[in-house]
Structures are given as structure tokens and as C-alpha cells.
Amino acid sequence: MSGATTARRHVLVVAPQCASMTQLIRLEEAATGLYEVLTDPALGACEPGLPSGRSGLVTGDNVTSAAVRELVHEAIGYAAQRQAALVLAFLGHGFAPGRTSTLHLMCDDSTEDLRHDSVNVSDLLSVAVDHPGVDGVLGLIDTCHAGGAPPAAEDLAGGARGGRSRIGLLMAASLGQSAVDLAFSRHLTEILRAGRPGEGRVLGVITLRDALRTVIVGQTVTGFDYDGDDSADGPLWVARNARVAEGLLGGLGGRLASDELTEALAAVDRGMAVPDAAPDLRAVLQCREGLLGLRPSPARERALRAVDALLVAVRTVAFVRGWIGGDLTTTRIRRALHIMLAAEGRLPSGDAHLTDIAVIDELAFNHPDTDRDGRRAVARFVALLGHVCGKDLGDPELHSWAERIEAPVEVNDAIEHAVRRTAGRRLGLVVSLHSTLTGDWPEVLDGWLLLDGAMIHHEQFPSGTADRRGAENAVEDAVLWAEEHARTLDLPLKRLDLAVPSGLLLAWRPEEAGVAMLLGIRYEVRLHWSNRLTPDAVLRSIEPVVAERWDSIAHCQVGAPVDWLAHEDLADPHVLRGHLRNGRYTRGIGLTQNPGTDARLMEMLLAYTPVLLWPHAPDGFPQERHGHLDRSWWAMPGALARAYRDRWRGVGGAGADAGLADLRAVWDDEDWLRFCRFFRTSTPPTRTRDEGTS
Fold it and tell me: What domains can be seen in the chain, in order of their start residue?
């Protein structure tokens, strides 16, 4: 990748509320969304703009003008120290004093038209763009009168840098116009996450200005672009284009391939061109031939490894698309990758847009040290993907591809691995506590053994004491019963689904049960809401809505499709019920605070969503930690089970995914909703142990 997309970038997003003006309800939401997309390594690729590990997001009440000026100056110095480009975003109330054309940002202590206690945005941008060491400035301005933000022409043409400076500005409205409801920031965030078809690798000011003008009505989005530095590696850009991020080499190669080839070939000869990744592979093969003609050296060997990995990646993407064809979907790619990496206890390096190119690029260029050249990982993924898509793993085409990537042994091993891993997912045990009449611990638990989603055995397990200990003993009895059948079927039992009443969901962590070993160590334990097995008329009436919401959740491509509710959102049950009834929350629901023992709240929320998340930690799950879930959403709920295991074992430290261990989840996915319908229409007869199971 060229220096234009690999240079260091910093970001500072400033979004203060103003005490003298109307409160901006969506200010924090808009600022946080914009900051997250700008710090996403796959998109904005920015680091926080303040030193000492502090966040580059400043928002809320009590943020004064003096504090903002100090923070921006600190960010400018930090960017200069690290030779970084600086992205400065200003959101909130703004004004242009009198008949002037200079934008001022209003902070907590500001009054409209008074310059003293406001922030002169133009002056700050002038200081930033003229500071030696700052590798260009990008400004994103979402205020009224935003068009007044550009620095004066004389400041850009002269100054300490003699005009050799670069600045790009994207502004929500022209001078004299209002900016409404933070629409600029919210739509910009959506566009950056989705990418733009037909555009290049990166999205600049003018491209985004034109895109925003198609969706924002009533305010004129304005762009400003000045480049006086003819020695710069490339133009300023706001974010990488998500639509082409997986094909940075112009064909079937991904970002990691581009990075490694750029560095490796430059180490051999700075004049050596990076080949494209077209399906015909002509440029890649020519590059390889040229490398082989050079004298052996460590640099040449590294470059050859990169070229060979690209050959594997391109041939694999082309094969997968031809072999699987129309059955290739994001959901199936996610499922195959989840099965593969769960066995290895690792996650991909980023919140990947799960395309075939992106995943194969990740596996070919970011493999464990134990996998010498990535072929083993690529082979395992393709075999699992073929199995998930219903392909015959004995197909001669698969073995022809193995020869083309020079990995026949790895592919044969991968086929065996795929059969073994997917067989473990065929058998599952469902245990339900739905028979309680009071919502408390039941006297008997029901167990069903499922094979490929179909019920093959049913049994009831008494709870001797109708309390927690009795229920846990009954669950272990059910597990022993299921394991006996698993041995008979010669299939491993890997998953335990538990249907639990509302109140017990808050009081019980069944994955921590187990006398000899925790259930959560032996199995992937998933929690479900038992009321769906025996719904009342109200629940039945909104079942189609819940099913539609699951479908939307399952097809989410970026981040976590979760509506987070804070304490104030839950304070009035009547207001909350009204929001649920009028469809305000259309995705999964997450609680930022522990709901305590409020079973009624759980019942109300679970009636309207198939996915409910809540923290069991006393400090809750505040907004700054939501990124943990965004990064791991593709692997949920398995990522939650792994996070629990890592915490019990004392591994994983304080990494991004370790924070998931503070969450609990009800996960009523399509399989569970289907099982509930089956239960109600075909309840199997109760059988005693003496009657056998044959």
C-alpha cells in the first residue's frame, strides 16, 4: 500500500453542549459514531489525537471554550511530534459574529455572538495547518454556519511553512445556514461504514461532499481542499473505501497482501512495481520470475514468500467463487470462520468485512507461526466453507485446487478436520426449566437430544429440592444422559442450550455449575427465554416481529446491531413499554447497567427482542466498552463462551475481548425460535428411563 494510506493519522472529535442554547439530544450519539468510524483500523485508521493514551473524543456538558482550545493545541503538538496527519471534528452549536464570515464553536460557557467565550475554529485550523511536522489537516465541521471554517487565504499561502501545507474541510452547511439534528455527522458515519461503489481506494473531501448532498436536505454540504505541498505522498483522505477495501491490489488480493508486498518488494528494489491481483495472475507470475532472477538474500526470500502467498490467495478466491457460486453468503463465510477459529481460540485481527477476499487475505498473511506459509489455514477454511455450503468434500475440483496451490496434504488434512469439527455441531442438548408455575426453580426439568436440529430423544429429570442446587443436579443428570447417547451415536456433544425463566436469568449462571468441572468448560452454554416455549396470547401476536428482528440481526455486516439502554431509559416502565410497542428499538437490546432482580423488566424486553445483553459487573457496561462487542459480534454467542473460559483460566489479560466476560446474554436465534414452534406443535410424549430410547 502506498504511503498515502499507511502514514500515521490522529483524530480529535470535539462536541460540547452549550448551556445557553437548546440541548442537542443526538450530539453524543453523533460524535461517538463519527469517532468510532474514524478510529476503525479498516476505515478511518486514526489513532486517538491526545497523548498519554487519552481518548480523542471530547463531548458532553461542562466543556469550556478554554478547555477546547487547550485540547486542540495539545493535539496539534502531539501530531507534529509524531509526524501525523490530524483530523479535527467539531460538532455542536456555532455562530458567525455579526457580519463576519468566521465560524465560532459554542461551548458550555458560550453566548451567541460573543467571541470571548467561544472557540474560533478558523484560527485553530490555521494554527494546525501551519505547524511544522503536522502532515496535513482534515476538518469535519457539523455546526450552523459551518462554511465559515476555512482559514484565511493569506494564512494558507504564507506562514511558517511558506504555503507548503495541506488542508481539507468537509462542512455541514454554508455560511448563514443552519445545520439540523447532526444529520451531517450521522450520514457521514453511515457512508464511511458502507463505502462508495465506483470510487477509489480512499474517500476524499469532494467525493464525500457529493455523496452527502444526495441525502441531506435543507443545508448545503460544503467542501474545501487546499494542497500546497508537492512533496506529499498522496492526497488527504477521510477514510478508506469499505467497498474496495478487500481488493486493494486491483483484483482478488486484500489489504494484508498489499501491505506485505509493498514493504517486501521495496526492501529488494524501491523501483520494483507491486503487481496487481488480477485473476489471470500474469503480473504476479512476472514479479515472481523477476525475483528468482536476483541474487539470493533474506529480502528476496521474504518477497518470494509474499508473492507465493498472494498466488495462494488469488487462486483460492477464484476457486471458491467458481466452486460454491450462488451458495456463497456472508452468513456462511462467518459460520465457517467461526467453527475454524473457535477450535484454535483466536479471532481475526480486525472487525473484518467478511468477504471471501478479506477472510482469505487474513488467513494467508496473518497465520500462526506454526503454519509456515498459511496454506494449512486457507485449506481448513475452504474445506469448512464447502461443508457449510453443502458441497461434496470428495469433489475432484477441490483436489485440483489443492494441486494448484501446492497443498495436497494440507487439503486432505483439512477435509478430515472439517468432517470432525462439523460432526461435533450435529448433536445438541436442550434443557428447559419452563415447567415452573411461579417463575422460580421447577420441580422437574425437560431434556431433548437433537441431531441436526431434529429431536431424537426426550426425557424428564426431577429436581429433588426445587432450588438452585436441585436444578443444577438435574442439569448434570441430563448431561450424563445425553453423553450416553452421544457415545452410542459416536458423535461428540459440544453444545448445551438452557431455557430459563426471566427471574432465574438474573440470578443464575448455569455455565458455572458442575461438580467435577464447570459446564461452560465442557460445553458451549447458551441461554434462552423459556417463556417462548409456552407463550401467552400477547407473545404469540408479536412472534413474527421477533423473527424479523432476528433476521435483521443475523444479516448485520458491520458492528453490533444492538440498541443500548441506559438507566434513564428504563426508569419509567410505562414509557419504556410505549417505546417497545411503537417499534423504537428494532434490533438486539443491551443494558448498560445491571438490572438487579427486576424480572418484570426482563420479561418486557425479551418479548420484543431475540437478543438481550446485560452486564453482571457492578460498574456496568458503559459506552466506551461497546467497541468490544462490535469487534466480536461476528463470532457471537461463541465469543461470549470463550471470554468466560479465558477469565476462568486466567488467560487473555485485559484485551479487547476480555471485556465480553462481563456480559450475560439471552440468544434466541432462528434455531431456538424454530425449536419453540416445534415444541408447541409436536410436544413429544414423556418417557421414563425404564422404557429405553430405541
Answer: 3-243 (3.40.50.1460), 246-423 (no CATH), 427-681 (no CATH)
